[in-house]
Amino acid sequence: RSQITPFISPGNSFPSIGSAPNLSTKVFSMSIGEISTPVEVPNGYLLVKLLEIKSSSVPDFTEVKQQVKESITNEKTEEIARTKASDLVKQVRTGKKFSSVARRFGLRPKLSNTFSRNGTLEDLGTTTPLDKFTFSAEIGNLSDPINIGRRTVVVQLKEKIAIDQEQFIKAKQE
Predict the structure, then answer these.
(1) If residue 132 lies in a helix (H) or strand (E), which one and from where to where?
(2) Alpha carbons 11 and 155: distance in angstroms, whole number
(3) What are phi and psi of 92, to 5 degrees?
(4) Which residue ranges of the chain lie beneath pLDDT 50?
(5) Which of the 8 DSSP states describes residue 16?
(6) pLDDT value for 163
(7) Which among 38, 77, 102, 167 could disulfide-bond with 45, CB atoms 3.0 to 4.6 Å apart, if both were Cys?
């Protein structure tokens, strides 16, 4: 799959990838038209072709006014989401039902498909931020709020599927 990203500053997250310091280092050392060697990112490997470099500059206030407004709105929205998620966790840990509490908060609980370490989930992208909890928790456990990009999620583990040791060993040998 091929994707063209908007301009990115050093240290910023990459759309659909998130934070990837090794990718950032690689991109900012490339020349226009250069194609990178494979670069490891949280959910796989990428090849990057640098199409354009834009010199840094101080933009006019009129150019950034809307961006600043959107940024503040996003920060406040994310803060509200984190607060709701924390409150939801507190209530569920007192014994209340997850789905009932979520609905009272105006949230819509979703059941995900199964996924593996460093996998992806529809609507969320990479599962890496969830991996520590999901692969160490017991069935029924509830996570603290977890940030995935600009979203805050709370996970309650419903099911764990044990790996098939024979298949794992066979795949590892291949």
Answers:
(1) helix 128-134
(2) 29
(3) -65, -35
(4) none
(5) T
(6) 80
(7) 38
